[in-house]
Specification:
Structural class: mainly beta
Shape: globular
Strand order of the largest sheet: 6-7-8-9-18-15-14-11-12
Oligomer: single chain
Number of strands: 18
Helix content: under 10%
Strand content: over 45%
Order of helices and strands: EEEEEEEEEEEEEEEEEE
Radius of gyration: 17 Å
Distance between the termini: 9 Å
């Protein structure tokens, strides 16, 4: 079960007695290309912390986190973001991120979601991470790297990863019907699934 604070900070993900992702922090970041009239568009970075308001709604079937009034390049109230954590009947959860972009000149370029910090403490758990030739490699008692890009996936190939505490695992898989480029990044801030050139509307299945 995922636990969020009243301002949208992920506090932890609990599976039985195992507790993952205890590093806090906001769930997403995004980059937009802004048409400024110059020969080269300007890249704008936004995050959940830029929102002017936040709301959380939780039911038996889902958790809905909403950020409103995010500015883009001088345009106030240009962007809204919504994260839905759907609780599936089989015990898994489907996490999705959607944007409502009201800017006529800013285009979504890349999303980083979900951003999970301290998935496991350094040296505490094992990790099964993407490796060469669309395979995977098991790292025992792994410590986070300053920045490590494990795999770039084109098309429908999903980034799949798992983190283990004892016999309990936290599993990731990216669902992408529109076959965009994706990658898994792991570093001091934790694990990030990124999607260049547009958002994933159904992104990150966590069991």
């Amino acid at each position: 079960n995922a636990s969020f604070s009243e301002n949208g900070i992920l506090q932890s993900i609990s599976i039985g007695e195992a507790v993952f992702a205890t590093g806090g922090g906001h769930l997403w970041e995004a980059e937009f290309l802004a048409d400024t009239g110059a020969s080269t568009p300007k890249m704008l970075s936004v995050a959940a912390s830029n929102a002017t308001s936040f709301a959380k709604r939780e039911s038996d079937s889902e958790i809905v986190l909403s950020w409103r009034g995010i500015p883009l390049g001088g345009e106030t109230d240009a962007l809204d973001a919504t994260v839905i954590v759907a609780k599936n009947a089989d015990g898994s959860q489907t996490w999705s991120l959607r944007f409502a972009n009201r800017s006529p000149r800013c285009k979504l370029q890349r999303t980083c979601f979900p951003m999970l910090r301290r998935v496991t403490r350094d040296g505490e758990g094992d990790a099964l991470l993407p490796w060469k030739d669309y395979g995977a490699r098991l790292f025992r008692k792994r410590k986070a790297q300053p920045r490590k890009v494990f795999a770039h996936y084109l098309g429908y190939a999903p980034p799949v990863a798992a983190f283990f505490l004892g016999d309990t695992g936290l599993y990731f898989a990216a669902e992408d019907p529109e076959a965009r480029q994706k990658c898994l990044v792991e570093g001091q801030r934790g694990a990030i699934l990124t999607a260049p050139n547009g958002q994933l509307t159904a992104h990150g299945i966590i069991v």
